[in-house]
Specification:
single chain; alpha+beta; Tumour Suppressor Smad4; 9 helices; eleven-stranded antiparallel β-sheet; 15 strands; 32% strand; 2 domains; Rossmann fold; four-stranded parallel β-sheet
Length: 295
């Protein structure tokens, strides 16, 4: 029984590497042979995937934040390895995908889960042929996540995102978009659009509290242009999970939508650089076999 462990040494506070020995020991005690791979450059990572028989592994573990998981899953699916069970060590800053599954904080406890045989079959979003696991987004606030320096994320954690988000308020510029789906046709100015597969985004744990990761649907939140005086009350609603009822928010579930925008706007998928327009976003039901604790 073989495990490939792909880990990002810079994720979160950078301490995962100190747990490697006990993870390898735990795997060997269960008769697994674990091979660790340290992510460096994208080029070297892709070369590794080209030169290894991925289907010879019984499971693949990924240690990192949402962005690392996003990168690795897209690469694995490119090589048609989606049938291999995936385990995640959520050691990034926000860990929004892992929040859905209520992973414990302890690396030892997570290792026990990943050595088990309990799986959840998860939907995955697709934006112009590129996969996202948790969220796709667009708007001025998306800048906050992409502009937050890694050194601040390491030292301040989620607070770094919130500080950067507050800075972006002064640069907020609504953009005009058009959205078409079976459920809604919308045209107007927006501050932010979130297309959620999971429940949490940017550390806000109740962004999509009605979402299910295996219902074959995406939860879409359109944050419309609103007076700046309404921003703080709206953020409080987001923190409390009450924003779906706001007059400045349109919320619906869908299996597919098309978004177009002719203006310059930042887009994002799982904390990584996002998509171009027009974008067709859909969901592939139960595509990812994820190792989880008993639900």
């Amino acid at each position: 029984m073989r495990i490939l462990l792909i880990y990002n040494p810079s994720a979160g506070n950078g301490t995962f590497k100190y747990d490697l020995d006990k993870i390898i020991k735990a795997a060997q005690n269960e008769d697994f042979y674990l091979i660790p791979y340290r992510i460096g450059s994208t080029k070297s990572f892709m070369e590794m995937l080209l030169n290894i028989d991925l289907n010879s592994f019984n499971r693949i573990w990924i240690a990192g934040g949402d962005g690392t998981i996003h990168q690795v899953i897209n690469s694995l699916f490119h090589y048609e390895c989606e049938n291999i069970p995936i385990g995640i060590f959520p050691v990034g800053t926000a860990n929004d995908l892992a929040y859905y599954f209520k992973f414990p904080d302890s690396i030892s406890e997570i290792t026990k889960i990943l050595l088990g045989d309990n799986y959840t079959y998860c939907d995955i979003g697709v934006a112009n042929g590129h996969y996202f696991l948790n969220v796709a987004s667009l708007g001025s606030f998306v800048n906050a996540g992409q502009k937050t320096p890694k050194k601040y994320k390491s030292s301040l954690g989620l607070l770094a995102y919130y500080i950067k988000g507050a800075e972006e308020l002064s640069h907020l510029k609504p953009v005009k978009v058009s959205i078409q789906s079976i459920e809604i046709n919308y045209e107007g100015e927006v501050n932010l659009i979130l297309i959620m597969n999971g429940k949490s985004a940017g550390g806000f744990r109740k962004v999509a509290q009605f979402a299910s990761i295996n219902d074959g649907l995406l939860d879409v939140y359109i944050f419309k242009k609103c007076p700046i005086i309404e921003f703080i009350p709206l953020f409080i609603k987001v923190a409390n999970g009450e924003h779906a009822e706001s007059r400045f928010v349109n919320y619906f579930k869908t299996a597919e939508l098309i978004i177009n925008c002719t203006e310059k706007v930042v887009t994002d998928m799982d904390g990584e650089k996002g998509f171009d327009f027009p974008v067709k976003i859909s969901v592939e039901p139960r595509k990812l076999k994820l190792l989880t604790r008993l639900q």
